[in-house]
Amino acid sequence: MSKRDYYDVLGVSRDADAEAIQKAYRKLAMQWHPDRALAEQKAEYENQFKEIAEAYGTLSDEAKRERYDSFARGAGGFGFSVSDIFGAPHWNGGNIPRKGDDVQCLIEVGLGEILTDHRRTVEFVTDDVCQHCSGSGLRPGAPKTPCRDCGGRGIVTDYQNQGDVRIAFQQTCGRCRGQRTVILPENRCSHCSDGRIPATKKIEITIPAGIPSHYVFRIPSLGRHGINGGPRGDLLAQIVVTPHPRFRRGRDNQNDLLLEMPISFVQACFGDSLSVEMIDGSTAEVVVPPFCQNGHTVVIKGQGVPHVARRARGDLWVRLSIQTPTSLTSEQRVLLSNFDILERAKHVHQKSDAQSKGSSFEPVQKEENQNSRQENGGEASGEAGKKDG
Ligand SMILES: [Zn+2]
Ligand SMILES: [Zn+2]
């Protein structure tokens, strides 16, 4: 009665990631789908298909997978009771009411949309009771059959030897999922699987201003139907704030915005005042100070994203980025060359001035420097004569 390991069922390793598990499941589910079976293979295909679905149902759910792994390691996690050492378990079966599975959806919102609260219609897929069989999953008038895997008890028992001790683990029967009965293929409702049909639904959600990306709304009772009369699962709607072409959200403070502002080398030297469009469409003045260095940041108060609870807006950080021209006209080239000569000369003068304030023999060096500069600029004979001397 021992069940196959879920990882073996899907043919994946124990450290397989969610993507690998989903890929394996899709492939196997397609391969073993009961619709592909010949009449005499029907039962085998259905069993395989169920086993695959059950393995996937557990391994694709992070919390369930963790519990399963801890069980598999012999730790006995939640849902699997280490009930009775040396003996048969005494448990009254698995048909206790259970909450239905949660369903998920993503809500994409632009960065510019979270400046104010706004309503959004969200579509998601859940399930509904099949109208043809009223949720029983049975063809009209057909009976349910006691499950032979668990003998109609709804639970199965696995044994593990740990040293001299034999431990019994109980878990819900995988074939009937604790229902104690199964529906034979010939008795199945032709409109649904297990009394449920997929249903696409819509709901309107208010997305509050300033919501952080990846925030998850849990909306109760919109998930899948419960089992054995249990409540419906929940809808988990995750917010994804999509990038803005100009503004980025602060990494440390999600209420601040960052803007990269290109300025020219000349603007950086002289300073400037720029009219910049804010994320809400208004304009604000950004003052570039004279002799501004690359990466200089100007903060504009209250032009960020609202704080989700306090409502006050964060700040906008404008980072000035000095751009180098990608081409020059011949006239610009001459002007820049002249600028370069003057800039170098300025540095030499500055250096000389600094040295003149230093030790007593330095003025001599200064003169020499000045002489050599003149010589370099004019006649070469002077320098030769100096070397001779
Ligand atoms: Zn049905
Ligand atoms: Zn069973």
* Major sheet details: 4 strands, mixed
From the N-terminal CA to the C-terminal CA, the straight-line distance is 109 Å
Summarize the amount of helix as a percent range.
Answer: 25-40%
Radius of gyration: 38 Å
Low-confidence stretches: 74-93, 359-389
H/E element order: HHHHEEEEEEEEEEEEHEEEEHHH
Structure summary, number of beta strands: 16
Number of helices: 8
Bound ligands, named by name, code or SMILES: zinc ion
* Principal-axes shape call: elongated
Beta content comes to: 25-35%
Task: Please write out the topology.
Blueprint (H helix, E strand, L loop, with lengths): L5 H5 L7 H14 L10 H18 L2 H11 L8 E5 L17 E8 L7 E12 L15 E2 L8 E8 L2 E8 L8 E2 L13 E12 L8 E4 L15 E8 L4 E3 L7 E8 H6 L1 E6 L5 E6 L8 E4 L15 E8 L6 H27 L5 H16 L3 H8 L1
Parallel strand pairs: 2-10, 12-16
Antiparallel strand pairs: 1-6, 3-8, 4-7, 5-6, 9-10, 11-12, 13-14, 15-16
Helix pairs in contact: 2-3
Bound molecules: zinc ion (2 copies).
